[in-house]
């Protein structure tokens, strides 16, 4: 959470309205707050012990006490939690606006460098971000390497989601910020990979796929030799 962004957003609504002023004061003081979301599923069999189970989960964490917020919802409501936020934004005319998002996979070994260079020195310093910023840890062995998606070559990496929202006329400002973050990663030698990237040249796509390029090219020749599918991505045809 950045000091310029509201504590509650369309992505998460765990923070009670009565505590938002405290959260805002905390983000104003520190500039950035790192908020950890924990989901614990339960049913009728363990409903009586769920609070104790949560205490065990949180026991080893280091955080500011007094800033634990809980919300008990049904499984369906949890899965559909973004919908309520969407409806609120739609009613204010703030949903159907440009969303210059950037999704990156960042290797665990460089996450602190990314934090210092991107979160602090670019996003926080420029004070432009208004949407949620999400960070998910992921395990390499949970991904099937036969897929075309490209992930860092480390056992653990992070999915960074910069879910920007902008006005109709100022989306380019956030788009430029995204480019600056990518340039920082490149100069710092952080081997981050974009999820659903947009490149303009074959060379850029080759660099993106890296060691997967040869097999990706072979599959294209095998299953789409006439290059009919997905011409808009400009992977095998240039502008």
TrEMBL record:
In the UniProt record, does the keyword Thylakoid occur?
A: no
Transmembrane regions listed in the UniProt entry: none
Where the record annotates domain Cytokinin dehydrogenase 1 FAD/cytokinin binding, the positions are: 2-236
Ordered alphabetically, the record's keywords are: FAD, Flavoprotein, Oxidoreductase
Q: Which InterPro entries match?
A: Cytok_DH_C_sf, Cytokinin_DH_FAD/cytokin-bd, FAD-linked_Oxase-like_C, FAD-linked_Oxidoreductases_BP
GO MF: cytokinin dehydrogenase activity; flavin adenine dinucleotide binding
Q: Which EC class heads this enzyme's classification? A: oxidoreductase
Its EC number is 1.5.99.12
Which cofactor does the UniProt annotation name?
Answer: FAD
Tell me if Oxidoreductase is a UniProt keyword of this record: yes
Q: Which GO terms describe its biological process?
A: cytokinin metabolic process
Family in the record: Belongs to the oxygen-dependent FAD-linked oxidoreductase family.
Query: What's the protein name?
Result: Putative cytokinin dehydrogenase 3-like
Q: Which organism is it from?
A: Davidia involucrata (Dove tree)
